[in-house]
């Protein structure tokens, strides 16, 4: 009877992935034998990694790759609180393009218009896109999903510049 109570406790506590219980009845009483097997979880090792500087740098670089025209971004440190994390970034000669109004444009779309030679210049000549260089600090916001993945959700720099997205930290 005591063995049966132990088996029930294991089942309730959920300590094992599978419990095989074999009960053999004898004429003089009950004989209960148990075998406990722990199942190996089928887990992708990429999902349950630590949040390292190198992995975050690669994810940040991937997120800004369409906008970066030069320079570099490195991770100074990472502050993690539960399912959120903030990475402090160091931008070193980071070059990016903006419209005349200051909105980010993709690096592939950056083209300085040729002079038309007209007496009255075209608006694209008067207000060409700008190539900017930034060398200071910024932030990357990360979120941890229920399946264990860390994702870079945004990168911010300067007063009002930033890129939103979802890049998995690997």
Summarize the structure.
Helices cover 16% and strands 45% of the residues. The strands form 2 sheets. Strands 3, 4, 5, 6, 7, 8 and 9 form a 7-stranded antiparallel β-sheet that branches. It has a two-stranded antiparallel ribbon with strand order 1-2. The N terminus is likely disordered.
Secondary structure: elements and pairs:
Elements: H1 2-13, E1 18-26, E2 29-37, H2 53-64, E3 70-81, E4 84-98, E5 104-105, H3 123-126, E6 130-134, E7 137-144, E8 150-157, E9 161-168
Antiparallel strand pairs: 1-2, 3-4, 4-5, 4-6, 4-7, 7-8, 8-9
Note down, in words, how this protein is organized:
By secondary structure, this protein is of the alpha+beta class. The chain is built from three helices and nine strands, in the order αββαβββαββββ. The strands form two sheets. Strands 3, 4, 5, 6, 7, 8 and 9 form a seven-stranded antiparallel beta sheet that branches. 13% of the residues are buried. Strand 8 and strand 9 form a beta hairpin. The chain folds into two domains: 36 residues, no CATH class; 116 residues, no CATH class.
């Amino acid at each position: 009877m005591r063995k049966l109570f132990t088996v029930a406790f294991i089942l309730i506590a959920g300590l094992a992935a599978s419990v095989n219980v074999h009960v053999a009845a004898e004429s003089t009483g009950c004989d209960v034998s148990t075998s406990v097997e722990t199942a190996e979880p089928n887990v992708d090792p990429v999902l349950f990694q630590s949040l390292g500087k190198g992995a975050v740098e690669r994810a940040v670089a991937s997120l800004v790759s369409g906008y970066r025209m030069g320079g570099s971004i490195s991770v100074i440190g990472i502050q993690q609180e539960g399912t959120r994390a903030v990475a402090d970034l160091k931008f070193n000669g980071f070059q990016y393009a903006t419209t005349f109004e200051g909105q980010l444009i993709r690096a592939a779309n950056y083209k300085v218009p040729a002079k038309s030679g007209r007496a009255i210049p075209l608006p694209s000549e008067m207000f060409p896109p700008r190539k900017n260089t930034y060398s200071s600090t910024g932030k990357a916001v990360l979120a941890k999903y229920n399946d264990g993945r860390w994702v870079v959700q945004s990168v911010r720099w300067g007063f009002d510049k930033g890129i939103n997205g979802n890049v998995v930290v690997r």
